[in-house]
């Protein structure tokens, strides 16, 4: 099958709205110096997410009207979430990096495109991702040398296999710099943009309450610690090249999406509780354990993991509102990167145990134990790059996202929720991305998985065997 053909129709920049347009007035020069939590991401910039709207499943306006409304509402949203309209800059005199939110940033790159040969209905409905199509529907940030973009947008008309009458639709692709936003901030932005686009005035007050000053993330060491992180991970600033090993072979991975319904989650929780005394798993712990066990069993059967090997599951926690993290706690209104690392460990033999649900219970105990540790000392593993660098990547599951991220509910731009939303940047064999499922999922969870193509079917068999 020929790869999808994407044609760029126009490329412009969208600036934050001026005060007369309902926006806010910015100071001539507004700089937010990156915290140590931000600085780790300076060479790992990309969060790419694609929202697919199927014309056959909703009343989408004409494409020109869609583009115009998205452009205008983006401008209004940027006026309140100003780091997204800025640039990440290097300050050579001090060694800092900062988000420059001055009017000189030039706005957000806004790409309008058309894609032939991609059926929106199939793209939204297939469990297996059309990896090439998803990749082409998301913009790439210009971020390898500072000043770096903080965000870019691509709006693509999907012509479908037979034109507008069959398989047509619209894709909204967003690329955001991870030094500027974490997952929670991504969805806060999308929710605000979508509300502005559909004319919901209530979003303005909430978006206006967002705070951006990284000084609120009062990690011991402050600015000097952040400079040390920059020297360690990006010693050649303003050059901030992404390490090749993180993206090499990414397009060769298979990606598949599973929707886990509430009754299935409920049954899994009870199975874990019955098999493990003292373990009362949350939805996140339950699904993390399911994915971890399925991954380890798949790799064990393939001879890539031995009984005596240690295996790991990595995930992030949000430190907003956690008094145990910093004093005073970071406000829930903080818009930025505010996450710390967690690493659960177990012996492979315990997770591949064939005795009932012993493997699932062992995984849940390890994950829940790490969640409890993180609650007591959230910043103990804040330098997550160093943490992950100490474990073999071929025995690691990387969990990202959250079961609470409103990936469908938050993204109604006025023509209904997307038929599909996916994170494009899945770089690792064994990466799992969680978001709340679409309304049709009945309050369940969407889990998207990247695996070696030869092992995806085995992983699916393991994963679905627990769901019944």
UniProtKB/TrEMBL annotation:
<keyword id="KW-0808">Transferase</keyword>
<dbReference type="GO" id="GO:0050734">
    <property type="term" value="F:hydroxycinnamoyltransferase activity"/>
</dbReference>
<protein>
    <recommendedName>
        <fullName>Anthocyanin 5-aromatic acyltransferase</fullName>
    </recommendedName>
</protein>
<dbReference type="InterPro" id="IPR023213">
    <property type="entry name" value="CAT-like_dom_sf"/>
</dbReference>
<dbReference type="InterPro" id="IPR051504">
    <property type="entry name" value="Plant_metabolite_acyltrans"/>
</dbReference>
<dbReference type="Pfam" id="PF02458">
    <property type="entry name" value="Transferase"/>
</dbReference>
<keyword id="KW-0012">Acyltransferase</keyword>
């Amino acid at each position: 099958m020929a790869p999808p053909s994407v044609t760029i129709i126009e490329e412009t920049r969208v600036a934050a709205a001026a005060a007369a347009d309902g926006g806010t007035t910015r100071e001539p020069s507004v700089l937010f110096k990156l915290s140590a939590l931000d600085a780790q991401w300076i060479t790992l910039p990309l969060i790419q997410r694609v929202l697919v709207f199927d014309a056959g499943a909703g009343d989408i306006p004409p494409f020109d009207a869609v583009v115009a409304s998205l452009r205008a509402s983006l401008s209004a949203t940027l006026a309140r979430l100003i780091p997204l309209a800025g640039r990440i800059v290097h300050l050579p005199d001090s060694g800092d990096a900062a988000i420059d939110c001055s009017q000189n940033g030039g706005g957000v790159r806004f790409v309008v495109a058309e894609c032939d040969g991609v059926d929106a209905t199939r793209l939204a409905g297939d469990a297996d991702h059309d990896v090439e199509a998803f990749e082409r529907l998301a913009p790439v940030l210009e971020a390898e040398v500072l000043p770096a973009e903080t965000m870019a947008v691509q709006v693509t008309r999907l012509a479908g296999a037979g034109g507008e009458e069959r398989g047509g639709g619209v894709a909204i692709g967003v690329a955001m710099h991870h030094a500027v936003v974490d997952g929670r901030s991504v969805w806060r932005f999308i929710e605000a943009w979508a509300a502005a686009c559909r004319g919901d005035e209530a979003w303005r007050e909430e978006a206006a309450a967002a705070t951006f000053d990284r000084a609120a993330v009062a990690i011991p060491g402050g600015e000097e610690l952040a400079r040390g992180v920059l020297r360690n991970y990006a010693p050649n600033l303003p050059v901030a090249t992404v390490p090749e090993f993180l993206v090499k072979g990414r397009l060769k991975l298979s990606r598949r999406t599973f929707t886990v319904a509430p009754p299935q989650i409920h049954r899994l929780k009870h199975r874990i509780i019955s098999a493990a005394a003292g373990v009362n798993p949350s939805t996140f712990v339950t699904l993390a354990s399911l994915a971890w066990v399925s991954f380890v069993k798949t790799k064990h059967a393939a001879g890539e993991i031995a009984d005596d090997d240690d295996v790991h599951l990595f995930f992030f926690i949000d430190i907003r509102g956690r008094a145990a993290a910093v004093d005073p706690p970071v406000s829930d209104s903080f818009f930025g990167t505010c996450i710390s690392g967690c690493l659960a460990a177990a012996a492979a033999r315990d997770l591949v145990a064939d005795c009932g649900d012993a493997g699932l219970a062992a995984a849940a105990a390890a994950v829940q134990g790490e969640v409890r540790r993180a609650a007591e000392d959230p910043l103990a593993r804040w330098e997550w790059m160093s943490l992950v660098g100490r474990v073999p990547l071929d025995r690691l599951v990387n969990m990202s996202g959250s079961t609470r991220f409103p990936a469908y509910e938050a993204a109604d731009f006025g023509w209904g929720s997307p038929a599909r939303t996916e994170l494009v940047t899945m770089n690792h064999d064994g990466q799992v991305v969680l978001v709340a499922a679409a309304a049709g999922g009945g309050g369940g969870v969407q889990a998207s998985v990247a695996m070696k193509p030869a092992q995806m079917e085995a992983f699916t068999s393991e994963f679905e065997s627990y769901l019944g």
